[in-house]
Amino acid sequence: MAIERDMKLLTASDVAELCEVDLKTIHNWVERGCIPHFRTPGRHLRFQAVDVARFLRDWGYAIPRRFYAEIAQSIVVVGGKDAIGQVTRAAGQTASVHAVDDLYHALLHIGGEPTSAVVIDTNAAQSWPDMVVPAVSSLTRAFTSLTIVLLGEDPLRWGEKLDVAVVPAGDSKLLRSALTNEAPAKEQAPAAPVARPKRKARKTA
After folding, report:
1. Strand pairing of 38-39 and 45-48?
2. What average pLDDT does the segment 157-169 reach?
């Protein structure tokens, strides 16, 4: 891979090299809205590394190690093996997933390593219910950019008391959307039928 400079911002040529396609293909993808982009004052295309990473992941391209290191997410999972497996599958290869036993250890981890998201298995959290609200409230105040997800059933209604996403266990699409801060894709509504113009009545003599 010839790209060795800072990869937080990429050119159209960089993206073409990553995808092993012609530069014209990148311009076609841009015109179709397949990949987020912006233009410089000189009208040159530029791409955010995170957007390119998501594009590569969604379309099945391999993410080179050098590129991966620039955009990797760090996610802390508080819970059991099922929750860890769900998060690992939903986050994909651009994330490193760290498992901890409880919110106390999650706080220690976040304090020592930059973290993009915390996923709390609600089944595990019911072992220490009094800790959830104060600990999560402290996290949201201290780390404004941190995404917090409750995974599973929420019988104690923590989601109503806290500014967090609640995702049912097994809903990988919604979990992935929550971890990447993207709105879940909506089904496209069918286009309304276009009414044909009425024919003008012929004038009779």
Report:
1. antiparallel
2. 92
Strands of the sheet containing 73-78, edge to edge, are: 95-100, 73-78, 117-121, 147-151, 165-167
Domains of the chain plus CATH, in order, are 9-69 (1.10.1660.10), 72-180 (3.40.50.2300)
CA–CA separation, 60 and 102 (whole Å): 34
CB 71 within 8 Å of CB 96: no
Helical H runs in the chain?
A: 12-19, 23-31, 49-58, 65-71, 81-91, 103-112, 122-125, 129-142, 158-161, 172-180
> Which of 82, 124, 118 lies closest to 98 in space, CA to CA?
118
Taking the mean position of all CA atoms in its chain, how far away is CA 8?
17
**66-95 mean pLDDT:** 82
Number of Cβ within 10 Å of residue 91's Cβ equals: 25
pLDDT in tens, 114-128: 788 999 999 999 999
**Residue 112, class by beta-carbon neighbours within 10 Å (0-12 exposed, 13-18 middle, 19+ buried)?**
exposed
pLDDT tens, position by position, 175-187 = 988 887 665 443 3
Would you say the C-alpha torsion 69, 74, 79, 83 has a positive or negative sign?
Answer: negative
What is the distance between the alpha carbons of residues 169 and 183, in angstroms, rounded to a whole number?
A: 18
